[in-house]
Design brief:
There is one protein chain. The protein has 259 residues and is an alpha/beta fold. The protein has one domain: Rossmann fold, CATH 3.40.50.150. 42% of the residues lie in helices and 21% in strands. It has a seven-stranded mixed sheet with strand order 3-2-1-4-5-7-6, with helices on both faces. Helix 7 links the parallel strand 4 and strand 5. Helix 2 crosses helix 3 and helix 7 runs parallel beside helix 9. The longest helix is centred in the first third of the chain and has 23 residues. It binds S-adenosylmethionine. InterPro entries: SAM-dependent_MTases_sf, Thiol_S-MT. Pfam families: Methyltransf_23. This is S-adenosyl-L-methionine-dependent methyltransferase. It comes from Coniophora puteana (strain RWD-64-598) (Brown rot fungus).
């Protein structure tokens, strides 16, 4: 692997530090006890970074997300790790009846709610539900949804990279929250098929996890979702314009749960 490609992520880290380091430092200094809550510090840093770069990253991935989400998502949609709501503009409001956002970073909720409201999903008319828990908190999710098998479409855009136990979380959401016949749509950066790239992904992951609220570079998420089983149809595809040496190699997937 070329060293330039192996170290390319430091450009992203540098840009994030430029916009988020000082605000994060000031945030900690205004209440020094925050220093004992590293997860909250990482969430603040992540929220600041996504506030600045989220739109550009969405623009970069527009073609892939358009192909994946717009023609497929329907009914009650659960957006795992919804962030600022970047998946919302891809939803066809004639086909999507309710938008359920699972987003544990409460600092992202105001922007998320604003984006949802703009698309017509509101708490007032019952078409919006924002849950502040993690995707792994299945009991809270099922309770809020009023029981099992009430979701028509799960959307996960660069979220399973950050969930603490992604295999279990994806499996439980697919088996308990998703309706028979429902869709699991994902767009995730994943572990490379190349051993040399994997080596670098594993090297950088402990650093990346700390800066970006748990985000791992070395997860074969597309394979894990396949391994859940119980699918009647499935398709996984890559980005034509990504090189094999990309540390953030993406995979899109559309899995249909057996009816
Ligand atoms: C890279 S951002 C992607 C946000 C959004 N999906 C998008 O495409 O803009 C990852 C998101 O996963 C969220 N996240 C972190 N831990 C999570 C968990 N345990 N369950 C669900 N989401 C989580 C983060 O708060 C963050 O909003």
């Amino acid at each position: 692997m070329h060293l330039l490609a192996a170290f390319a992520l430091f450009l992203d880290l540098g840009s994030a530090l430029l916009v988020a380091f000082i605000p994060t430092l000031l945030w900690v200094l205004t209440s020094p006890s925050r220093v004992f809550r590293p997860r909250n510090i990482s969430q603040f840093f992540m929220a600041k970074t996504w506030e600045t770069f989220g739109d550009a990253i969405d623009e970069r991935d527009r073609v892939d997300k358009d192909k994946l989400i717009a023609p497929n998502a329907y009914g009650v949609v659960l957006d795992l790790g919804a962030g600022n709501g970047h998946a919302i503009p891809y939803l066809d409001t004639k086909r999507v009846t309710k938008y359920v956002a699972v987003e544990p970073n409460a600092l992202m909720h105001p922007k998320l709610r604003q984006t949802a409201d703009k698309a017509g999903f509101t708490e007032a008319n019952g078409s919006l539900l924002i849950l502040g828990c993690g995707g792994e908190d299945i009991n809270t999710i099922l309770q809020a949804l009023g029981g099992t098998h009430s979701i028509d479409t799960i959307v996960s855009v660069m979220a399973l990279c950050s969930v603490p136990d992604p295999q279990k979380t994806a499996r439980v959401l697919a088996q308990e929250a998703l309706k028979p016949g429902g869709l699991f749509l994902f767009y995730e950066h994943v572990l490379s098929p190349r051993k040399d790239v994997q080596w670098w992904q594993r090297l950088w992951t402990p650093l990346w996890v700390r800066a970006f609220d748990g985000c791992c570079l070395d997860r074969p998420t597309h394979i894990w979702i396949d391994e859940i089983g119980g699918w009647s149809d499935k398709a996984v595809w890559g980005n034509a314009d990504e090189t094999e040496e990309n540390l953030f190699l993406h995979r899109s997937g559309k899995f249909v749960k057996a009816a």
